[in-house]
């Protein structure tokens, strides 16, 4: 029974196969102390590092590389990390992405007179377990000394399970759901909630600073994925080859002139057509 005064809720979405746009990712910044700065920072010695850092991004599916890799420009390294704020564009389009597409990011550090050193890597699936394309800012853990693992599941996941993120991590997850419209908006309650969340975040930062951990040794890479007006759900039209492989599926064969050539029906049709042409010529 429909409730009086209630309007039915609608869920608007796009299908991934309909998005004819190239895949993009914005590499924002790297947070945390680089390994080359930790010893200098702990000894309270002014840093004279002249290294630079860049990020290499790839799209993979089933350990296969999709298209060409993309990379950022060089960013001067600092005690607190690095900043880029660059959009990287891949040659692959959203409509062509497999459901197990992963974004792998590798952080490299270069310094004068030394070969490039891999700082670490991280991997993130572009689609959630429910088939929804991820969007918005992503805080990804960088696994130091390890290249991005493109296996499924990956051994270098950028996302920590929600149950292990702590109170602040769970709050940030809820704020992200609210920003993308998954949580209904209530103006007066939202204002109180956001104020309380900012207060908790400030308290958390103060506790870290008091404990001397304002600059953590663990590295976090912040990346932004494009946001669409509505949710994007994974979908690929079923091809003829895939359909014929489904058990219990019968696919009819298209019949054309080439297929019917030489059959009695085609011979009779040809005879009738020839007779019609002769009759038309005689009448003329």
Question: Would you give an account of this structure?
Answer:
The chain is α+β, with helices and mostly antiparallel strands. The chain has helices at residues 35-42, 166-179, 187-210, 240-244, 257-260, 264-283, and strands at 13-15, 22-31, 52-61, 64-65, 70-71, 75-76, 81-93, 102-110, 117-125, 136-144, 219-225, 231-233. Helix content is 26%, strand content 28%. The strands form 2 sheets. Strands 2, 3, 4, 5, 6, 7, 8, 9, 10 and 11 form a 10-stranded antiparallel sheet that branches. Mean pLDDT is 76; it is low at 1-5 and 251-260.
Which helices and strands occur, and which strands form pairs?
Elements: E1 13-15, E2 22-31, H1 35-42, E3 52-61, E4 64-65, E5 70-71, E6 75-76, E7 81-93, E8 102-110, E9 117-125, E10 136-144, H2 166-179, H3 187-210, E11 219-225, E12 231-233, H4 240-244, H5 257-260, H6 264-283
Parallel strand pairs: 1-12
Antiparallel strand pairs: 2-7, 2-11, 3-4, 3-5, 3-6, 3-8, 8-9, 9-10, 10-11
